[in-house]
Q: What sequence folds into this?
């Protein structure tokens, strides 16, 4: 009778974590940062229709990196969670902290029980009345949650982008300055620049605060390369 190979729980957990991290690192980073006008979501995304950034509820936004179909499934589940909680209680009872906790339970259960973990990392943010009251949470593939005051980065070269962003970012800075700092942090010398997808949780709006930003709002939304080899139109459609 054939016997399966024994794998220790520690090794199995390590292998699953490495598998998930590799999948997430292959995508491009997404940044969420507080600014004077609200909470900015910005990411390199060559696709104009497959969004990495989306609205979840009145004052809550979502960003995902990794496998698109996996974080899209989580986004839809988050909307359903928010609608059900708002209907059962009150719309004000839908919070980013509770949503991050729900995501953590789903990702944690999948990581420990299923044969393949989600290859995703997500950011959930809630805009407050001032930058100091904004909430940003990062939820990892294994269900771990971290509170990220001021700004958070997920996916790709996240540590490198976060280090650059925190060195340039000023707390409560205007939207244009935060966009410029985030765009500069997202650029990598070894990868052609891609189209930027951006959205804002606008704290001046009374209820639904999410709005997408385009070239009319930010004329320099698409970063430009000084290397002529990366300025061919084909380069702007690739996601490395």
A:
């Amino acid at each position: 009778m054939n016997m399966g190979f024994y794998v220790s729980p520690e090794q199995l957990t390590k292998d699953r974590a490495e598998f998930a991290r590799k999948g997430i690192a292959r995508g491009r980073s997404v940044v969420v940062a507080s600014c004077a006008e609200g909470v900015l979501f910005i990411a390199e995304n060559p696709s104009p229709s497959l969004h990495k950034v989306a609205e979840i509820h009145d004052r809550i936004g979502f960003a995902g990196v990794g496998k698109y179909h996996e974080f899209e499934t989580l986004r839809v589940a988050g909307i359903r969670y928010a609608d059900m909680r708002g209907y059962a209680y009150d719309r004000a009872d839908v919070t980013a902290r509770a949503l991050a906790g729900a995501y953590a339970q789903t990702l944690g259960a999948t990581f420990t029980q299923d044969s393949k973990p989600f290859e995703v990392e997500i950011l959930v943010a809630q805009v407050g009345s001032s930058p100091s009251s904004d909430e940003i949470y990062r939820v990892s593939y294994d269900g771990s949650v971290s509170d990220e005051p001021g700004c958070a980065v997920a996916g790709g070269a996240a540590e490198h982008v976060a280090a650059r962003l925190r060195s340039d970012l000023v707390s409560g800075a205007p939207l244009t300055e935060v966009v410029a700092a985030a765009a500069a942090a997202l650029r990598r010398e070894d990868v052609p620049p891609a189209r930027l997808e951006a959205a804002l949780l606008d704290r001046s709006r009374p209820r639904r605060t999410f709005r997408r930003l385009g070239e009319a709002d930010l004329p320099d939304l698409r970063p430009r390369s000084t290397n002529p080899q990366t300025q061919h139109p084909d380069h702007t459609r690739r996601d490395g």
Notes: Confidence is low (pLDDT under 50) at residues 223-240. The helical segments are 9-25, 68-88, 96-113, 158-168, 175-186. The chain has one domain: 16-224.
